[in-house]
């Protein structure tokens, strides 16, 4: 091995090794080149090009408006900005409705973005799709619990697995998706005790969001982490910065400077 060789990109085998070695997996979303590059520099293990793109970047009320072309444009930008992180792209609403449709979608995403894996929302019915993609060499991250693409079916965003029947169904689904060949599984807004139990029962990594601290790793929407939202983020989020305030203050200072300038100064000159 050459000492000069650049740091190789993490693979799904590295992610499994982190879980097996008891090291937590740190995952964030990103949608653009510069943010992805900064997260990569920070040592993030996995970057998800999430279909939350629709809410946090494109200004849609739900993720349902996001298209495969949207994911490809942003997925390619994220991949170009990174060298180390494993990059996963969400398959958006309507692009994984059956195994063959999902396979076509995933092939297009991998070919046109450079991303290494896709994530698919879905319960037990997603199992044949996961198996089909895996047979073609495409790693799939599963996603259960709160599935935002099903918001109209669910009737809102809330915590899942609160009663015994729903808890049992989620446990069985997680086992079925692992058996189908998922390399990891997102547990979104699942009761923490149940998420812990699922994490103990599975051999693949679990990645939690709003599901307590016992999962093999955690994921957050990057805008929620850095405080770059207009609307209040979900209550499980602990923001680490107030980037919206930083932007607002810089823009206010700029506006004031331009308005108050008597003539052309170096700072306010427009090329
Ligand atoms: N900014 C952002 N962050 C996310 O985590 C996120 C998105 N957008 N868009 C797509 C989905 C939607 N998600 C959401 C959205 C809302 C809640 C939420 O407000 N939950 C309530 C609990 C409501 C209840 O239990 O009744 C909360 O207060 O956290 C949770 C996850 C997660 N994803
Ligand atoms: C919140 C994560 C898991 C996601 O699916 C997204 O950002 O789209
Ligand atoms: Mg998503």
From TrEMBL:
InterPro entries: Pantoate_hydroxy_MeTrfase (IPR003700), Pyrv/PenolPyrv_kinase-like_dom (IPR015813), Pyrv_kinase-like_dom_sf (IPR040442). GO terms for biological process: methylation; pantothenate biosynthetic process. The active site is at residue 188. It catalyses: (6R)-5,10-methylene-5,6,7,8-tetrahydrofolate + 3-methyl-2-oxobutanoate + H2O = 2-dehydropantoate + (6S)-5,6,7,8-tetrahydrofolate. SUPFAM superfamilies: Phosphoenolpyruvate/pyruvate domain. One of its GO terms (cellular component) is cytoplasm. Catalyzes the reversible reaction in which hydroxymethyl group from 5,10-methylenetetrahydrofolate is transferred onto alpha-ketoisovalerate to form ketopantoate. This is 3-methyl-2-oxobutanoate hydroxymethyltransferase. The gene is panB.
């Amino acid at each position: 091995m050459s000492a000069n060789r650049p740091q190789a990109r993490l693979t799904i085998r590295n992610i499994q090794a982190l879980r097996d070695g008891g090291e937590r997996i740190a995952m964030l979303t990103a949608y653009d080149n510069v943010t992805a590059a900064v997260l990569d520099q920070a040592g993030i293990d996995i970057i998800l090009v999430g279909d939350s793109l629709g809410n946090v970047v494109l200004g849609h009320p739900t993720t349902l408006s996001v298209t495969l072309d949207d994911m490809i444009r942003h997925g390619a930008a994220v991949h170009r900005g990174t060298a180390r992180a494993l990059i996963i792209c969400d398959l958006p609403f309507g692009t994984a409705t059956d195994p063959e449709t999902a396979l076509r979608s995933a092939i297009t995403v991998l070919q046109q973005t450079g991303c290494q894996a896709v994530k698919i929302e879905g319960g037990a019915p997603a199992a044949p799709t996961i198996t089909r993609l895996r047979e073609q060499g495409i790693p799939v991250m599963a996603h259960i619990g709160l599935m935002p693409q099903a918001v109209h079916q669910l009737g809102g965003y809330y915590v899942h697995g609160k009663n015994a029947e729903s808890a049992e169904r989620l446990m069985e689904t997680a086992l079925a998706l692992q058996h189908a060949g998922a390399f990891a599984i997102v547990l979104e807004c699942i009761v923490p005790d149940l998420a812990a139990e699922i994490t103990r029962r599975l051999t693949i990594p679990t990645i939690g969001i709003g599901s307590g601290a016992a999962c093999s790793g955690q994921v957050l929407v990057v805008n929620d982490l850095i405080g770059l939202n207009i609307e209040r983020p979900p209550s499980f989020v602990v923001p680490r910065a107030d980037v919206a305030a930083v932007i607002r203050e810089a823009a206010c200072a700029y506006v004031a400077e331009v308005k108050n300038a008597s003539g052309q100064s170096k700072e306010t000159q427009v090329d």
